[in-house]
Structure formats: structure tokens, C-alpha cells
Amino acid sequence: MTFEQTLARLEQIAAALDRDDLPLEEALKLFEEGIARLREASAALADADGKVRTLVEQAEGVFEVKE
Amino acid sequence: MTHAGATSAEALSVHALTTAAKDVLEGAFPKLWVRGEVSGYKQYPSGHWYFTLKDADAQIPAVVWKGATFKIRERPEDGLQVRALGQLTVWPASGKMQFVVTAIEADGEGLWQKRFDETKARLEKEGLLDPSRKRALPRFPRTVAVVTSAEGAALRDIVAVIRRRNAGVHIVVIPAAVQGEAAPASLIAALDRLARWVAGGAQWRGPALPTPEVLIIGRGGGSREDLWAFNDEQVARAIAACAIPTISAVGHETDVSIADLVADLRAATPSVAAEHAVAVLAEVRQQVAQLAGVMADGLQDRIDVARRDVDRHADALSRRSQLVVERRRARAARVADRLVRAVPRAVEVRKALVATASAKLSARSPLAVLERGFSVARGAKGETLGRRDAFTPGTSFELALRDGRVRAKTESVHADAPHLRTDA
Predict the structure, then answer these.
(1) Minimal Cα–Cα distance from B175 to chain A, Å?
(2) Contacts of B420 (CB under 8 A, 6+ apart)
(3) Each residue's pLDDT tens digit, A9-35
(4) Please, which pLDDT band fits residue B30 given cuts at 50, 70 and 90?
(5) pTM for this structure?
(6) Which option is the CATH number for B114-279: 1.10.260.40, 3.90.1150.10, 3.65.10.10, 3.40.50.10550?
(7) Other Cβ atoms within 10 Å of B376 Cβ, number
(8) Smallest CA–CA separation between B291 and chain A, in Å?
(9) Which one in B74, B307, B316, B350 has a CA-CA gap of 20 to 30 Å to B266?
């Protein structure tokens, strides 16, 4: 799951939990999933080590990223 | 005063005449700019360009030698108003005047605009500029691909802006020439690399970065000619075919390129493109925190609702159970009452029943028969062997007696039964 998808899923879960007609059982299950996704999202955001690389095609179809 | 060809005896050759005329013309006219409309343009297999420059009242044949054509970006198409720099001369082979052109400028925006408009019209016809084709940008890409010159100011700007907004975002530069003859092919090759990466078909030497989720393609400001690669039709098609959303950033605010038209988003400058591509990390964090809050509140609300439901049900339940309890208690009282009255009699009846039953039982018990001195033959599974055909010579059986068991073996089997005779 990309970060984008994780966030989209989180938004879905938040919207679902915001409804009163969701069976409690399901609400709890969603919340649990939400917590897991939140962890993923937070972990992704904590990684503050973005790299700047140059894509090099070493040979036909063989790629490498270089500093 | 005498001059060449003054008398019949001194007649010049045609060649000498045209050559002389050529010298005179070239001497009289320095290189100069001429305004006119292009007509009858033709490129010869030799690589030279021929056309006529004309206006309402006059015309002159013009030529661009092959060597000069490379410096002229666009072909002088028929009907275009141009300014041509050239040398007036005579072409001895035909005896005609000729304007040898070394530079062409379209009058006003003509030439560039014409090509731009034509390319735009073709792409538009195919629906490639349709607003419905525009894809939404990812809000939080982990990796941004940048197709631009590795040395350009555009790249420095993009990297600086992205780093400032979110230092966790990876930037992958796919270098390309962004001006000059080779630029279109170079840009297309870079886009092709990106396409193969995104499609997952590439092999990697060393670790890969996460697949890019958005592309910035562009360059910094420059002359119209410098930016021209971004008006190339094939470059535009490659951008339109890009598997991930694209942001174009070509030149300055006022420069609009074909690339801008096909990209999912046109940014005024490379820095603005970077701002569109990457959200500020703190804002992303805030959004995630907000989502966590919404979720927690939502669940809390849901739990409160559920608790109220439970309380309501519990109330109803307890009211109902009180009724049930009372009803049960009443019934239990009645039963007890009946029991109290019925028990003495029941005990007597039961005693009598037990006595007769056990008498009947003991009369039927095989034990009673054994008591009287009989024995019972049983097979391996405990079944009673009551008939002759249950025995075969050599098989074992068991005899159950009043005071124990006997393992026995059948010796022989006989049909006659003298012990059952009553007449003996």
C-alpha cells in the first residue's frame, strides 16, 4: 500500500466511524484497522531521509540510482 | 572609351556575362534583409531549399543551401510572411537573379506560432488536450521524478523547494537535454525510462527507490528557441502517455508550451511545480493527526450510542425479567403445592411398582436360569449360541455357569437331541 492509499483508507475509515448506523462490532474492527494504518502512516512520515538520486540506465533495461 | 563586348569582335561568352553580372550585383548589394511571402517552397533531395519570395507586385527566386538549413529551425512554409537575410546574386546556369538566404525570421510570431498552432490542433483533435484527461496529483508522493537538465537551475529550484517542504520525499532526476537539436529525442528517452520503471519492467543494480508517483518535467527560462523542445509533438505525446500524473514547468510564467497543454498540471515555474508536487510535511502530519482524532471521536460516539442502546435494552430487560420471575415464582408455588399433596401417595405407588418390577425382572433374568443349574454357550463376541448351526467342530466357545465360565471347544455336532425327549 502506498502512503497515498494508506491515507485514502484512513479517510474512508474515519468517515465510516463518523456514522452512527455502523454496527459496533464493525466499528471496533474498523478502528483497529485504522490504528494499524495510522501506525503505517506515522512511520512513513517519521522517515525524514529523502534522497536525491539520478537515474542511470547502465544497459538496456538495467537501472541504477546514483547520488 | 572601350569595354568588354563593345564590338562584335570582342563579343563575350554568356558565361562571362553572367559571371560579370554576378560580380556587379554582389558588389552592389551587401547582405541584407528582405521582407516577403514564401511561395512554392520545395526541399530538393540534395538538401537545398528553394522557394520564391514575393509581394503583390514582384518576386525573386530564393534558395537556402543545405549547409544553412540546419541553422533555420522551421521550414519556410508557403504563405508565411518572413524576413530573410541573404545575398542577391545571379545564378549563371539559368541567368536569373537569385536571393541566397542564410537566415529566416517569421514576420511577427508567424513561423513559430504556425507550427505551435498546428501541433496543438493535431493533439486537440485526438483529445489529448481534453480537460477530462487531466489526472489529480497524488497529495503525498513518496518519490518525485524530475525530467530536466542535470545541471540546470530548474533542478536546483525543484530540489530546494521539495527538501524544504518535506525532507522525506525522494527525488529521482532523469537527466535530459532541454535545448538544442537533440533535446526532443533526449526528453523522449528520459520519459521512456520513467515509463519502464513505473511499469516494473526494469532490472536494478543496487537498491531501487520507491516508484515515482508524480513527474515534474521542464526547464528554466530561456529564449523561444531554447524552449522549443517542449513544443515538440513527440515529446508532448510521450508526456500524455506518462503512467503517472505530470506537472510541466517550462520557462517563465508567460511561456506556454505544448508540454504545458498535455501535462496534468501546468506550473508557472519549476519552483511552483515542486510546490504542487509535494505537500508540507507538517501539514501532512496534521492531517494524519486529524484523521486519528476523527476516528477516535467517531468510535467514542459510536460507543456512547451503543451504551445508551444497552442501557435502554437493559431497562426493558429488567422490567421484563421481573415479570417473568414473578410468573415463575407463582407457578413454582402451585407446583410445590401439588407436590406436597401428591408426594405421600406417590411414594406408596412407587414402592409397589418397584416390587412388582423387580419380581418380573428376576424371573426373566438369565441369572435365575443359571441358578437352576443351566449353562449358556456364548461365542467370541458374547452372542448366545442357541442353535446347532452356531457350532462348527474345532471352534471355541464359552460356557457361562452359575459360578463362573468355561472355555470349551466343539468336538462334533449332532442333529439328534435325546435330552429334549420327554417320552424316554
Answers:
(1) 7
(2) none
(3) 888 888 888 777 777 778 778 888 888
(4) very high
(5) 0.57
(6) 3.40.50.10550
(7) 15
(8) 6
(9) B74
